[in-house]
Amino acid sequence: MEEGIENRLVKKINRAEHFSDFIAALKTKRYTWTRLQRLATHVLTGAKKNVMKSVLDQEKIPYLRLLGMNQAGQDYLHSIKKQLSVPLISKIKKDRHPLLELDIRTAQLYEFIVGLQSPRKDGGFQETEKAPIRFEERTGRFF
Fold first, then answer.
1. Strands 68-70 and 133-136: what pairing?
2. What's the domain range around 117?
């Protein structure tokens, strides 16, 4: 957050009834809708500039996170998984990379805001609590 936008955030937040109203009230020529959404996401997930910079400064990515696949993709991943230089994450476990923590918080926030999946009774979310989705080409269905 920079250049005094935090004052604008505080001033406008109490007047908005919905997230879109809030972003619309903040929007100016200087602050685009997309930039404001990204800023709100960073604030809500607790993303810190120094963490993001440290990840971007690395020469290689810390992990690959699998979200979905079809049979051809599953076969391909099975054939190359031992050749990968970084972990391929299909199920999120307890011991995790700090960037994965941010990834999880962001996915859960997104699901909550857009209403893709209501939080389950146990507090879990679709993308972070379930196995990657699979597309069955024969039937045209996801499971």
1. parallel
2. 60-143
